[in-house]
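hiii so my PI (J.) wants the whole complex modelled not just the main chain, which honestly fair. so below is everything: four entries, each one labled with what it is. i double checked the lines twice but i was tired so who knows lol
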Amino acid sequence: MTAARITRCAQDLAEERGLDGFTMHDVADCAGVSRRTLFNYVSGKLDAVLGVPPAPDPSRLIEFRAGGPTGRLADDVKATIGAFLDSKDLAPEDWERVRRLIAADARLHKAMHENFAKVAAFLADAILEREGARFDPLRARAAATVTLSLFDVALDAFVADPSTSLAAYFMAAFDGAAALFD
Amino acid sequence: MTAARITRCAQDLAEERGLDGFTMHDVADCAGVSRRTLFNYVSGKLDAVLGVPPAPDPSRLIEFRAGGPTGRLADDVKATIGAFLDSKDLAPEDWERVRRLIAADARLHKAMHENFAKVAAFLADAILEREGARFDPLRARAAATVTLSLFDVALDAFVADPSTSLAAYFMAAFDGAAALFD
DNA sequence: GCATTGCACTAATGAAGGTGGAGTGCATCA
DNA sequence: TGATGCACTCCACCTTCATTAGTGCAATGC
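here's the output for the full assembly
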């Protein structure tokens, strides 16, 4: 449908001409909507190219806040973020294209980081709710920052070598960080 | 002596005029050395203002690589970084001035981050040596990135509220991250 | 003999100005 | 009610220029 068409057009144009080589008017023409309408589907140019970011699954968040799915915080963070990262159901060649685009322009890399930063902040709030007084604001901040930095590690690894999925790299980075705190 | 004089002059000038409002020639005149000699003491303008970064203590690094001081990785990382952050022996009012300068100019904040990034990379190498095959490159990268992000949390907290030392904030952030992996 | 310094050079940065296009609000239309 | 046209603001990027940061090298002085 329209959002997918927009993404495909934006990616085609970005690969051909680079991020600065096409306008949102070009994308709109390609996708068959007006430029104004385009912004009803994507929040900006970078998201047009990257595709609409997935929304966190409300039921998983409810479960997480209630202490699930396993009861162990680390495992539950892992499961929740892993599911989020896997929720973007792209074919391998689409992931490969996203990877190439991210590698080619630091602004896209930064946008990925920033999109995930929102998720990490959300998760920190959820941790505060779930864990109560055990987590003060500094701890919540540390948790969010660490989660985000592990995403960065995973993203860098994915861009460098896409034979492993972003979610799997995140899991590995998470385990690596856990080993630091053994 | 000379390095301390350079730092004091650079800080005076930075507080009066902002980072762009004085030249290295001004600092040199104030400190009583030539501009050329100034660079024998500091690597650049930002380090003139922040003071020369401490060097990691070689004996502590040797101890760390050998599996010390306690044998538990998390405790040893904490102890080693804590000692490093405490090794800059400034009076409270000097720390307060550094804090004000960092808060006033993002470039100084960034320089602090980058100075610590070198330490974090060093530590990751030391972890690789100490822990051997248990830590592959991705794990080492995750460890370094997490350590650096916890420094960022500590630095932000210190700039916002300097009633606690940078080292103590780092310890608290480290414990907060450890709680994430419980 | 080594640290300081002067000098000349390159590289980097900030300021200022301009521009195209991103992003947004609002009214109209189908 | 969603799509669209239109007008507007804001912003990122580019260019130009001047200043200064940073650096290498040779000379000097203690």
